[in-house]
Amino acid sequence: MGDKGNIVIVGSGIAAMSLSATLKLANVNHVLLEKSSHCGGILGEIHNELDDFVVGIFENGKEIEKAVADFNKKYNLPIQFNSEVTDIDTISKTISYLNSGELHTVKYNYAVIASGSRFKILEEFKNAKLKNEIYYRISPFLTDFRQTAVAVIGSGDNATIAALRLIEYAKKVYLINRSNKWTSRKDLVKEVKRHPEIEVIMNSSLKEIVGDETINKIVVFNNQEGRSSEIKIDKLVLKLGYLPNSNFMKNGIELDSKGYVVVNEKYQTSNEYVYAIGDIVSGVYKRIAIAQGQGTSLGTYFLKELLPSIS
Ligand SMILES: Cc1cc2nc3c(=O)[nH]c(=O)nc-3n(C[C@H](O)[C@H](O)[C@H](O)COP(=O)(O)OP(=O)(O)OC[C@H]3O[C@@H](n4cnc5c(N)ncnc54)[C@H](O)[C@@H]3O)c2cc1C
User: From 108, 121, 175, 187, which residue has the greatest number of CB atoms within 10 Å?
Assistant: First the structure.
């Protein structure tokens, strides 16, 4: 590799790898710091068929993850695994990361944040005795729900899709939403209304999970009426959306109110030397093709416009 560039990329999901593949074509010096021991990021969490990704037929995200790992085996992208970024200092233009318990620092000319997002979990129930009965994803476990009463907490598309899938197995599904707005797609809302066995409960938040070995019931608090009520269930599904992996960005880079990175049309953040792509970007639709497109687009911009202007 040449010494042109010196770009440090956080993450090795589809966005980061697409950027890296483009930079590698022109021998641009760069490294990807990845906290886990594999590339492909969140792909492995996709258990549905990829029916909106037209480059091939993939039964689930694991299959794309394997394709991505094969790509890396062949083209040998400069990914440094087990390297968790803990800080970006935009003044000294350095990134700190932990590898095998040791703190390292690397200097950058440009940094690219491609750290994606993660499922939001309810911290207070993380260590609950009943956690085996609490599901964050359902696709691999659908038969567990046969003839059960299930509560799905959440109001977005994922929660509504989960309720619709579950009702094929469960005898009753409660879709519980803490706000008075059901933010799901209209066609999904319409579909739910065709199923009397799905009961939608608005303005209500989960307060308590009651049970010993298995869940007996949950307590929900109605924020509008100011009172609690109990619902008898067997299983609980939490579809609370996503949280951005941006906790290592303590200052110097503008984040939106949820912690996603704000960028301009060139994927440049509020700091001239820091860019962001993929699911970590504020307001972006979370899709594989979009993450990939942003990576390739930023890589091409680096090659054609940014790096030639400084060399
Ligand atoms: C359940 C589910 C179903 C989906 N279904 C579809 C679908 O059907 N079609 C579709 O197009 N898209 C789907 N998506 C969305 C798609 O998977 C994502 O939009 C895309 O993979 C995001 O890629 P990314 O590179 O931006 O982020 P990610 O894949 O999240 O990669 C981020 C990487 O950064 C690493 N990282 C995070 N923090 C740090 C740190 N501090 N230091 C170092 N590394 C770090 C992570 O370990 C990870 O490897 C789905 C997603 C989920 C979760």
Answer: 175
- Residues 251, 114 share a domain: yes
Tokens of 28: 């641009």
> Do both 10 and 112 map to the same domain?
yes
If pLDDT is split at 50, 70 and 90, which confidence band does 310 have? low
Q: How far is the centre of ligand 1, averaged over its atoms, from the C-alpha of 278 (Å)? A: 8
Domain boundaries, position 250: 5-119+242-310
Distance CA 280, CA 51 (A): 23
In the predicted structure, residue 170 carries a pLDDT above the cut 90: yes
Atom of ligand 1 nearest to the CA of 11: 34
Decide: helix, strand or coil at residue 203: coil
Quote the CA–CA distance of 214 and 233 in Å, as a whole number. Answer: 10
Ligand 1 centroid to residue 208 C-alpha, Å:
31
Determine the pLDDT at residue 191: 96
Among 196, 217, 238, the domain boundary falls at 238
Residues 230 and 246 in one domain: no
294 shares a domain with 231:
no
Distance 61 CA to ligand 1 centre (A): 10
Q: What is the CATH number of the domain that holds 45?
A: 3.50.50.60
CB contact set of 124 (below 8 Å; sequence gap of 6+): none
Predicted pLDDT at 137: 83
Q: 248 CB less than 6 Å from ligand 1?
A: yes
Q: Atom 30, ligand 1: which residue's CA is nearest?
A: 116
Are residues 81 and 226 both part of a single domain? no
The sheet that has 274-276: what strands, in order across it?
Answer: 79-80, 29-33, 5-10, 110-113, 274-276
Is the beta carbon of 41 within 6 A of some atom in ligand 1? yes
Q: How many structural domains does the chain have?
A: 2
By most ligand atoms within 8 Å of CB, the mutation choice from 9, 33, 84, 288 for ligand 1 is: 288
50 lines ligand 1 (CB under 6 A): yes
